[in-house]
Design a protein that fits this description.
10 strands, about 160 residues, mainly beta, binds copper (II) ion, about 15% helix
């Protein structure tokens, strides 16, 4: 009997711990190929969330310097600015896209090559570290889905039924 209840407890714990990771789903991470000599790149992606969270950092083996950047209007000129985090809405999630929020890769030791993939770890305030894979696309080749900021909400509904 003791063995059985221990096994049941272990099962319950594993269910609980996996549920903790269901709060944030990262998808469609991509970057653009860089020309040699350019030491900067940017990563764009979509985050779906069951509960509000905040993206507070990013790490990747392709560079030691990955920063969260946003664009802001400075007298009609859009300029990049480093920021300490992006809010992830429970319904809206978070979309990083060209011309808006992005993860800046600085001091790249090697260029990013089209069709290459690389790992990226996102750090969330509540969900903790979440791993994703970034696909390097041809420069300027923005995926169609990211042109429509409202589309990702529909896909997110698929995850709404997850247990907490
Ligand atoms: Cu930037």
């Amino acid at each position: 009997m003791k063995m059985r209840s221990a096994a049941l407890m272990a099962l319950m714990l594993s269910v609980l711990s996996s549920a903790a990771y269901a709060d944030v789903i990262v998808h469609d991470a991509y970057s653009f190929a860089t020309v040699s000599g350019t030491k900067t790149g940017a990563v764009f992606l979509t985050v779906g969330a069951d509960a509000a969270d905040r993206l507070i950092g990013a790490e990747t083996p392709v560079t030691k310097r990955a920063e969260l950047h946003t664009h802001e209007d400075d007298n009609g000129v859009m300029k990049m600015r480093k920021t300490d985090g992006f809010d992830v809405g429970a319904d809206a999630g978070l979309t990083l896209k060209p011309g808006g929020h992005h993860i800046m890769l600085l001091d790249l030791p090697q260029p990013l090559v089209k069709d290459q993939t690389f790992p990226l770890t996102l750090v969330f305030e509540k969900a903790g570290k979440v791993e994703t894979t970034v696909l390097v696309r041809a420069a300027g080749d923005v995926p169609a889905d990211h042109d429509h900021g409202h589309d990702h909400g529909a896909g997110h509904d698929d995850h709404a039924g997850h247990a907490h």
